[in-house]
UniProtKB/TrEMBL annotation:
It comes from the Bacteria. Keywords: Membrane, Signal, Transmembrane, Transmembrane helix. Residues 1-28 form the signal peptide. This is PEGA domain-containing protein. The chain crosses the membrane at residues 353-375, 382-402, 439-462. The lineage of its organism: Bacteria, Pseudomonadati, Myxococcota, Polyangia, Nannocystales.
Amino acid sequence: MPNFRSRLSRAGIALVTALSLGSSSVQAAEPAANNPEEARRFEEARQRYADDQYLPAAELFEALHHDTGNSLYLYYAGLAREGAGHDAHAALHWRRALSAGLDETFAAKAQGRLDQVKARTTAFTLTVTPAPLTDGASLELRYRGAGERRPLVVTQGDLPLHLEPGDWTATLTAKHPGFESLAVPLSVARGTPQLAQAFELRPIEHPATFELGPEEAVRAGIVLTLRDPDNLAPERRETLSNARFTAPLRAGVWNYTLEAPGHRSQSGTLTVGPGAPPLTIMLAPATPTPPMTSDALLAPPMRRRLALGYGIASIVPAVAGVTLTALAAKTDVPADPNGNLAENSLKPVNDRFLGGGLLLGTTVGLWTGTVLTALPLRRRAWYFVVGAGGALAVGGLAWNLGTYAAFRDEHFTDGGQGSPCDLCGSLSPEEWKRDRSHLLASTLVLGLGAGLLLTAATNLIIARRRPSLALRPAPTGFSIRF
């Protein structure tokens, strides 16, 4: 029954159309009157339609529109396509004819036909990823059912398309040559008002190779930044450790920027494609250091790297020092009936205070060295820091040893055979508080001097080997490479 109704509907359409094609009003509007060849071709197309040869008639009307640009032929081609059951093609012809401009009589007829087709078809839309590829992309729709059909080729401006029920294949091709076409099968069910399809286009990638120099720039760490001028891919940033770097990139043009400490940055464009040769770039040295900072021991990039390295390195002794000191402070030392503290119980507490104070002092020394490293100090200033650090370290060590000797003389006793026993006797809380204060103070001073001495010596050593040394990030932290 549905097929009979469809044939009856098409027969009615054909009859009305044949009458309209032969009416005097249509003849008056025909542009073929002044061109015999065009008139002959129009007459042939009209006769084919009258003989129910819808596809040949549609192709003749479409050829007339292609050669003359007259939108009236698109209206007639839509009637022929509708007669053949190609509702999507017919609706597309009428929409384009209305957009191009028809006189009032034919515009009303085309709009009426288009509204009828919309009511019995499915409105098809699409989305494209990356979104900028939507502009200029072409969509080819092929009907996979029985019968002869020409594929529909449309652009974004022709959407939504109104597809009749059946199986279709939609192939999207981007205008940009760096992306693959994508074919997607569609199944349009009868009675479905709308159908949306997402297309995610994949880039066509080729290996792009950079050969970089000089060696000093590679050792210092070259940063490569790649940008897509069409905004079809996110910015890519690589820190290179080798002179040769290869990465797969989308075919087409890319912008690049190369930066390295002590060298001028360089920018340019790179064309990626099959068989493209490597891009060789030699970075030029930077301009000389301004006079106001020329007397500094190290250049600003190296100072920043060293300061960052010291700051990170100080985390470990800081955490360990705080932990040991806190454990020592929280340790409960038993007292005898007289309220004195047993000396043998104080030994592990004493050791923890010793280690914690030394680590905390070293942390303060590293922090002080970090601040000094960030400043443009001259070599003479660093020699002063070496002297100060050494003096503090020696003074703290002497203080600590003196405290230990006094503690031993006061609280150690000899055994029966002339050998010392293991911390015999006891201390009052006041005596322990006094000894603990001296212990912590001396180890803090010792650690402070050691931290200053370490940072100052490192700065001076690096300054002497500056032409062949680089400090840069590594997977497990920072590494110094000679």
